[in-house]
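Subgroup meeting minutes
Present: P.N., E.W., G.H.
Scribe: E.W.

1. P.N. recapped why we're keeping a running log of single-chain structure predictions: easier to compare across weeks, and new members can see raw inputs and outputs side by side.
2. G.H. added today's entry (168 aa).
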Amino acid sequence: MCDKIKIAGIVEESIVDGPGIRFVIFTQGCPHKCVGCHNPQTHDFNMGRYENIDKLAKKIDENPLLSGITLSGGEPFLQPLELVKLIEKIKNKNLNVITYTGFTYEQLIQSKNKNVLEFLNKTDILIDGKFILDLKDENLMFRGSSNQRAIDVKRSIKENRIVEYDFK
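Output recorded in log:
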């Protein structure tokens, strides 16, 4: 199924899933099942639908107002090859990529899966960590709980240390 992504849905123009106007893809299937998750309908691996990567790329290409794309879930890192293919199809648009994950940056960077590492490398800003209801903070920009970090992936890889991204 490398030409399709299993999704729960899309939002073609969002202003709440990252800075600017964003095309958001909610992947289907999540092993984390965080209590209080904003998208619990994305947890079940048996739900959702398959969407053609070329069709998604075409929708993204057709919108000149977009600042970037946001890949959320579910858990996007369970479909790294498919999401890398999507990102590569839209790279000429110069859109930034935000990826939400329940995994930590440290877990991802140590992955032995080359597709996970390539997906991480193609992400500009990573929002990492499970949502923890007891740490919920509605004052955080584009994050749900205070344990989650907004990480500048390109700088973090270059500097070999975690560099947090400031949305302000």
